[in-house]
């Protein structure tokens, strides 16, 4: 049930719809200019005057142009941390809509009450790559900015892919709300035998770097997809909110057809598929090389990149140490292993007040409840903040059409903007009125 106060706020947003659209039109024009610049530094210089005009004090986190940190200090008792991540080379109208909605909400709220009920901290990560792996410098960057990023809760805004719509079989206008995320351990394994070129006809007496690496990789996982590193599963923490997975439909056949596969891994279906996707750790080889297809020489070196996807309870550093021990114990002490990047998993129970608050706001804004799931299968670069400062980190994932319209006033774009304005305003309002 929507309270009278919330009804007034939503009515105010609808009343100023024309003003919001005009603000969105101007922002879209600015965004198009920024998008052509592509580099994080250039986009920062485009956004800086706009954020300043709306009262935000804007700096670069640890002087890194890829991390724009803005703060609006209102003297309120509660603080929210907003987070948006974009690849500068593939910015689109949906990205612009997400950023604009945050700024326009501040403007609308000021017109309604004259002030903002919470302090707002806003972190924009304008990466120049689409890689899901966090940069190696991220842990020290977050440690440096930990005090600056302290908040009652962190809200991450994401755009949902068409595959995710298909996976969960939900309409584009139904938001997904994740109260946690998987972790990530990205490692490099390398085998180096000799610097001397040796012909392949010596293969019966000379070690092959590619084979050494393949045997080492083969020891990590068996044919049943079980990871064979001693103690790998020991620290996994049970998730309280996995009941939501039981209501998800079986979309395995649609995914198999979409991806052109003979079947999913181990033939999983229904609940088993969703559980494996969201709540099971994995070990994936994403790159491997060794030798040269035009060479008649034994590979003298080989390299592979492996991603470990981790679930709550598993710590990247612990898993890395166990991996090193595993290689030693299984006779692969010659395999060089390096940790390239990592991010811990994070999880906040559904019963947490901030989760309840955000879920309520989404329900009122969209006029139907979000699909709530325990963790997103991707990692979150801010997950260390939950461990360091006990900040709940939630992700709102919004569905969009398969194609992106170019016009700022396209009906699907303006409808999404309106929902995001309502959603953000209600979250700020409810957080500001928390005791």
From TrEMBL:
Keyword ATP-binding: no
Gene Ontology MF annotations: metal ion binding; peptidase activity; succinyl-diaminopimelate desuccinylase activity
Protein known as: Peptidase M20
Pfam families for this protein: M20_dimer (PF07687)
GO cellular component: cytosol
Domain named Peptidase M20 dimerisation: residues: 202-331
Keyword field: Hydrolase, Metal-binding, Protease
Source superkingdom: Bacteria
Protein's UniProt keywords contain Ribosomal protein: no
A single BP term in Gene Ontology: proteolysis
